[in-house]
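TODO from last week: model LysR family transcriptional regulator.
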Amino acid sequence: MKSSYAKTQSTLALGDLELLLALVRGRTLGGAAERLKLDASTVFRSIKRIEKDVGEVLFDRGRQGYMPTDLALELAGYAERIEAQLQDAREAAFKSSGEPSGKLRITTTDTILHGLLLPVMSRFAVMHPRIELELITSNALANLSQRDADVAIRATRKPPEHLVGTRLGTMQAAVFASRSYVERSAAPLRLDEADWIALDETLADHPSVKWRRQRFPKLVTRYRCNSVLSVAGSVVWGLGVGVVPLFLMQHQRDVQIVEGPVPELETELWALAHPDIRHLQRVKLLFDFLKENVTL
């Protein structure tokens, strides 16, 4: 989208690129402001000033937030390269002391975070006290190209080709029920007549949903949850039966497998990063740590 601004010699500075990159990543004035620790009005005025300087509109404003134009994305690419080189310089400065540092943003699902990462991450934090951990939970794969996160921990059979990573192991799932639920149900427990706890429509493409519909096409679920972690909790407290990863139930003595593990639900767990930052010391350390300490 062309602007009416008159093009002159640009005075674009490093701080301008940093602000532009923050808005590309944050997608809203508030999101950019939070990243930069500024207020939204300052971000708005700064973007208007930068657009006037370069003589182009850099963002299309709409319901989805601030959508970057091609030029904005190109400039953000320069900003990312500068950011990566700056981090390399910082790591080089600390390399002689052997003490890695910097912020490490990790994104994963709440299920993996609570079931696998949190039980072991305290050891990583003690081993590397200068590394700042930022843990983000989401069911969507973060845009690692735009540095929404540095590392993504995801369950997948086919990792995205544009990312590099380490396979952490194989995840299995089964149909679980609490012992109290089984005891109060008619014997033997029939899964096609049981009270099912299932994921809701926000996760309609989840493998467990597809499997259940194929296995029990006429089944009507009684309970709906918007996370696997919630399904697991509902099973533990005796509401009914549900598909849950084995690692979530490994320490629950009052639950039992009523079918499975289900081969169709087997998948892999990966730690993924963008190739541009895979070489960073803190990323390498995390990958090696997870490979040794995550138990499935």
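Done. Confidence is low (pLDDT under 50) at residues 1-6.
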